[in-house]
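Action item from last week, closing it out:
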Amino acid sequence: MLDAIITALFLAIPLLVSGSFHMWVVSRNQFAFLAKPIHLNAFGANKTWRGIVVMMLATIPGVWLAQALEPALASALTVSILNTDAVLLGLLLGLGYVIPELPNSFIKRRLNIKPGEPAQRFTFLFSLLDQADSAIGCAIVYWLLLQPSLDVMVWMVVIGPLVHLVANISLYACGLRKQPF
């Protein structure tokens, strides 16, 4: 079980890198020409082309970092990414991160919840969805490319939202996020 947990945490590294970089980009309004909503009415102002492009491209260096760290952790890991194309994995993980966020945003816009604002009703459910949607999307990408065991998949889905939450709180503390959740 410990190997599955360590593997799930290890597989989160590329997304921690890209998510942190994305928040830095947004907080400094870098690549403003891409900060156009994908579809304003459907998803709101915060789901932008910049988010898709930055998450896809910034996840690649995160994969390279994980590949560099893997030899030191190999004895505790149940899957390897060393022989995986870092560009392909990074691009797909970036998409796996952003695409699952869209249905949640779509539902929130239908319920008149403003982009970036917490839900007043069903607060816990929407907070959970905000943290879990990307974890599930990335777990699917890993499953398709690496075929991790079921216990690793479960831990990715369970730990992913917790890692996402801790990262959000840390980015908020650093001034890179407007809200901690």
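Closing note: The mean pLDDT is 91.
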